[in-house]
């Protein structure tokens, strides 16, 4: 349990190298949430089958359920077993303390989201908290991601339509992106260009022209991520990869596949109480979602193993 600082630095160097490849070769890497071990198996299988690099990520609830050290160990074990390029991302870290714990725990990617736990956080609060994490991450070389304010939506199933007039008000501007990179020193900026957390009854629409303007305005080495990727037609990601997005977060589509398939296998096997014996269709359903995203992100065949 626990990695040496040398091992952690080796991993973060590889993670940085992967992000450089996304810029040079114009593909995105999927960051897939793991609720539990079955999801991790599904992601590992998809990564192996398509020879794709992957990030697995854990939110506050997932960290609480599994534990930082356990996640690190599980990922290391599956990485070796499947022979894949895989990293861990803290997804929407609530505060500076959990981000520091994840850095010490050897996570290669840290997303600090001050406004998640405190929606009233001021710009200065967000910048100073993010800066503190950026400074601390120098210890291991972990990449830090943040954004200006919380994203619209929530990682769940929504019945309402998307009011683009309303959410357009919170879209990122190129000027905001430039000043946020300068103020915080983050590696990755999570843009808002029509992406929303959660799954909606209508497909999401990304403003690719705005994305291209943001990309053109910031430093060529600065990285862009897209959250709320579920329920977005795949052609948007193919274009986003060409424009220069490096990381796309996927959660709700996997959760939907997991839960609906689990409900079906439980209904089909009312007398089976050893649930572990009937989980295979659930893993396969989640794997299919991950494979579809990998194909759309252009990361098939892009893994570098060493
Ligand atoms: Zn997110």
Q: So what's the overall shape?
A: globular
Number of helices: 13
Q: Tell me the β content.
A: 15-25%
Q: Give the bound compounds.
A: zinc ion
Helix/strand/pairing category: alpha/beta
Would you count the extended β strands for me?
Answer: 10
User: Unreliable stretches, pLDDT < 50, 5 or more residues?
Assistant: none
Mean pLDDT figure: 93
Series of H and E elements: HEHEHHEHEHHEEHHEEHEHEHH
Helix content: 40-55%
Arrangement of strands in the largest sheet: 1-2-3-4-5-7-9-10
Cα gyration radius (Å): 18 Å
**How would you sum up the major sheet?**
8 strands, parallel, barrel
Cα distance spanning the termini: 22 Å
List keywords for this structure.
306 residues, two-stranded parallel ribbon, 10 strands, binds zinc ion, alpha/beta, 8-stranded parallel barrel, 13 helices
Structure, briefly:
By secondary structure, the chain is an alpha/beta fold. The protein has 13 helices and 10 strands.
Q: How would you sum up this structure, described in words?
A:
With 306 residues, this protein is α/β, with parallel strands linked by helices. It contains 13 helices and 10 strands. The strands form 2 sheets. The protein has an 8-stranded parallel barrel, surrounded by 9 helices. It has a two-stranded parallel sheet with strand order 6-8. Helix 5 links the parallel strand 3 and strand 4. Helix 5 runs parallel beside helix 7, helix 9 crosses helix 10 and helix 10 packs parallel to helix 11. The mean pLDDT is 93. It binds zinc ion. The site of zinc ion (ZN) has 4 residues, from loops.
């Amino acid at each position: 349990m626990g990695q040496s600082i040398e091992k952690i630095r080796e991993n973060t160097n590889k993670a940085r190298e992967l992000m450089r490849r996304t810029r040079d070769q114009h593909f995105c890497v999927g960051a897939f949430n793991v609720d539990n071990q079955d999801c991790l198996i599904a992601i590992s299988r998809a990564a192996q089958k398509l020879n794709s690099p992957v990030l697995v990520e854990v939110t506050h609830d997932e960290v609480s359920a599994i534990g930082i050290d356990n996640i690190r160990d599980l990922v290391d074990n599956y990485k070796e077993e499947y022979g894949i390029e895989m990293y861990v991302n803290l997804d929407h870290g609530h505060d500076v303390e959990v981000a520091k714990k994840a850095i010490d725990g050897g996570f290669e990617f840290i997303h600090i989201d001050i406004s998640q736990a405190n929606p009233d956080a001021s710009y200065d609060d967000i910048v100073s908290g993010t800066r503190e994490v950026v400074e601390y991450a120098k210890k291991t070389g972990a990449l830090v991601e943040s954004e200006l304010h919380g994203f619209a939506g929530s990682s769940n199933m929504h019945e309402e339509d998307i009011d683009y007039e309303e959410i357009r008000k919170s879209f990122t501007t190129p000027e905001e992106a430039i000043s946020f990179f300068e103020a915080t020193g983050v590696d990755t900026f999570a843009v808002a260009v029509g992406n929303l957390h959660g799954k909606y009854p209508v497909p999401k629409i990304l403003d690719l022209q705005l994305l291209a303007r943001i990309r053109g305005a910031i430093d060529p080495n600065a990285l862009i991520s897209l959250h709320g990727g579920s329920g977005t037609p795949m052609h948007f990601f193919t274009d986003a990869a060409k424009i220069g997005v490096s990381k796309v977060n996927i959660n709700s589509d996997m959760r939907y596949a997991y839960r609906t398939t689990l409900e079906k296998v439980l209904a089909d096997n009312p007398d089976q109480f050893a649930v572990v014996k009937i989980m295979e269709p659930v893993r396969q359903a989640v794997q299919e979602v991950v494979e579809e995203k990998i194909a759309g992100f252009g990361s098939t065949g892009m893994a570098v193993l060493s």
